[in-house]
Amino acid sequence: MKLRTARRISQVFFFSLFLFFVFVSDLRYYKGYPISLFLELDPLVATATAITTHTIYKGLLWSLALLVPSILLGRIFCNWICPYGILHHFIGWLMGKGRAEDKVRIESNRYRSIYQTKYIILIGMIIAALFGSLQIGLLDPICLFHRSMTTAILPTLNLIFPSTFYVRQNFYVGGWVVGFFLFLLVGMNVVIPRFFCRVLCPLGAFLGSIAPAALWRIERNPTKCVDCDLCLKNCEGASDPHTQLRKSECFVCFNCIEDCPEDAISFKFMPPLQHEVTTPAVPARRALLGGMLGFAFFGFGRTSGAQDRDYDKKVIRPPGSVEEKDFLERCIKCDQCIRVCPTNVLQPAFLQAGLEGIWTPILNNKIGYCELNCTLCGDACPTGAIQRISIEEKTGVGKFAEQGPVRLGTAFYDHGRCLPWSMETPCVVCEEVCPVSPKAIFSREVTITKRDGTDITLRRPYVDPALCIGCGICEHECPVTDEAAIRVTAIGETRSRDRRLLMDGGVTNSVRELEQRKR
Predict the structure, then answer these.
(1) What integer is the mean pLDDT of 104-133?
(2) For the chain, which terminus, N or C, has the lower number of CB atoms within 10 Å?
(3) pTM above 0.70, yes or no
């Protein structure tokens, strides 16, 4: 079997496997199913989260398995396994220069200095991670592809083929930005083959930093080589196999071996190092620039105060989320939690959570609400930014009764918009839909005289902050649809002691009385 055929079979298999995990909507209902397999295989995700948190989430230990072939063979992941790289490879062949004449293809596959950019990006992200700002997910190919499929591709396909991927049509705020970015990167393959992989990919740069240590490498025999440059015709990584191989750029596609008419290129065990460029070609000044950019990103993002006193009240995190600072040290912006959410309440943030929180998940209660008996977001999270909790722990029953339910925030009324309060119109929707027991929303009857002189009895609603869990169903179901008369904010959330609403931590006299009655 030819190496090219073997590679194509591998590409079809792994790309199909990725699509299987992404497209089959029923997977969201199977806890523990490996929908995060590719994320857990990502060594850059494991390394970056280990730097920011000083721990390795157990699911990410699978990434160690990927380092073995990288140490033995080089960047084999980029061209044989990576679904995002496979997408760019196919589009580049179909729409770019993959089918042009030999001379054009040879020139398009020569190494360019712009390919250093990915190493500068990697250095910047690693420096930011050292200070506790995890931004790998912005450009990591697996995170980026998951995010693109979740917020742009699947909703669009479901709009065209209703109920194919979602029971209901999902909407994502800012999804068009993610979709446009995906098409921009894919479209750049027309200009530079494998543009993202060669120029921007931080995972490729990470594996390229390991690749020079590979035991098996491409070797060119200079006595047989006639300098025809045909080895460049299908070179995926623009690694210059016709001169000194740039091992950090080589995708191990083996195309050069099959394209060489003189059999001057082979794959050998530990060939002489003088026949190759052994390290990534990044000048020290540009590496320093990458470090400065990473430090600046951290500094500008952290000093904005978006995590602390100036936090946005609308930044409500999913149930089980760790404290905000720790959350930003763990969240890789893959949007797995957003994809499995059954009510579409989880949305990718833009600047609501500050510069560091771009594309992290927040609740938007106008679109959905947090289902009381659902913890799928924690099951899908590969890094522990959202902890895996049980339904009992979330609802505060059984052995978790003492600590109480998980609170996402607290609901507040806008009396100027509430129908019973300001418009003399009966409405008890919020009280009816409140899922907790006893209900966090209660009402009191009042009799008022209308403008025409007639009396009317209304039930005016109130919120007991000690019972409210911030699920947002009241805001979602409020008949005042443009801006609900009751809205949830992040104050009172369980994960942060600094954002407590009640001085006693949330236990009011009414709750104590209820507990005493139960005894």
Answers:
(1) 92
(2) C
(3) yes
pLDDT at 383 over 70: yes
C-alpha to C-alpha distance for 342 and 328, rounded to whole angstroms: 24
How far apart CA 330 and CA 383 sit, in angstroms, is 6
Q: Average pLDDT for residues 389-411, to the nearest whole number?
A: 91
Helix axes 117-130, 202-210, angle to 10 degrees: 90
User: Which two three-digit tokens encode residue 435?
Assistant: 């899922």
CATH (residue range 410-489): 3.30.70
Residues near 359 by beta carbon (within 8 Å), at least 6 away in sequence? 137, 138, 147, 178, 333, 335, 348, 349, 350
Which pairing describes strands 346-348 and 276-277: parallel, antiparallel, or unpaired?
unpaired
Interatomic CA distance for residues 205 and 115, integer angstroms: 10
Cβ atoms 25, 166 nearer than 8 A: yes
58 compared with 363, residue with greater pLDDT: 363
Domain residue spans of the chain: 3-277, 324-406+491-516, 410-489
Average model confidence (pLDDT) across the chain: 87
Residues 6+ apart with CB under 8 A from 180: none
User: How does pLDDT run across 413-425, given as a tens digit for each residue?
Assistant: 999 999 999 988 9
Give the DSSP H or E segment for 77. Answer: helix 76-80
Distances (CA, A) of 107 to 54, 89, 102, 166, 244: 45, 17, 9, 45, 17
